[in-house]
Amino acid sequence: MCQVITTREMKQFIIDTLGLEDLAPEGIGDEQTLFVEGLGLDSIDALELGIALRRKYHIQSAEHEPASKDDFRNVTSLLDFVVRHSQGALAVGA
Q: 3-class SS at 10?
């Protein structure tokens, strides 16, 4: 069975994981840069987010295709990464 994950759910996941209580999902653009000049996340946030994604979505990136900074560039690229590494268990929904 394929689980569907939406951009709104991913935005809420980011907010909950990183404790961004003063931010709503609507406050994050799908293509908004998550790090530095965009949302302002840093390398510690990336580590926390990566660990939380692996736990929640059972992500196991292969050694030949590890996560890159491009995978964490924005919500859209993050969703693509999660779906690509979920081995068919996830799909992006509206």
A: helix
Sign of dihedral through CA atoms 43, 44, 50, 53? negative
Q: How far is CA 30 from CA 9, 11, 66, 87, in A?
A: 12, 9, 22, 23
Domain interval for residue 48: 3-88
Q: Is residue 93 part of a domain?
A: no
Whole-structure pTM value: 0.85
Which CATH number does the domain housing residue 8 bear? 1.10.1200.10
Residue 94 lies in a domain: no
Task: Calculate the CA 3 to chain-centre distance.
Answer: 15
Q: What is the mean pLDDT of the segment spanning 83-87? A: 77
Q: Where are the beta strands (DSSP E) in 1-94?
A: 3-6, 90-93
